[in-house]
Amino acid sequence: MRCPGIYRVHWLAMKPTAIDITNRKQLNSLLSQLTPETPALWGNLKPQSMIEHLVEAIEYTNGKRTAAVHVSQEEADSNKQSLVYGDVVISKGAKGYLADATKTKRYKNLPTAIEQLNKEIDAFEHFFTRPGKTAIHQHFGAMNRDEWITWHGKHFTHHFKQFGLLHNE
Prior knowledge:
mainly alpha, Four Helix Bundle (Hemerythrin (Met), subunit A), 4 strands, two-stranded antiparallel ribbon, 6 helices, disordered N terminus, about 170 residues
């Protein structure tokens, strides 16, 4: 599988996504289990930093931030086919490229960050109300609403497993 360098050797073929960001009942039920003291099972993120990282990721798909494609169209298409459409999940050792939320806190506490995550998902839904709307992923190129729901689902699943909100299958 051809993958961007940051993902190479960090992907494992497994079951499809467990999280659907549009299923707010499920999403918020899982988030309600998270406390500021919830330990990460791996990695360096704290609960609030993880939520702020997810806020940042959603902002790239609701019009608040923009990305540029860092690979050729052929490579972007290949990456998208393998990683968005393929039955893969992000492994424990994966290194991402959204660093903002891991450096400084944007919100006063975890509940405020979770509230903001919900607002950003609302903005995501509004952003994609126009037919044919897309948002850019650095390694996958332009993606539509359904593709982003799939990719965000894989990303959220990874972090929810990181904090024990979901268990490895």
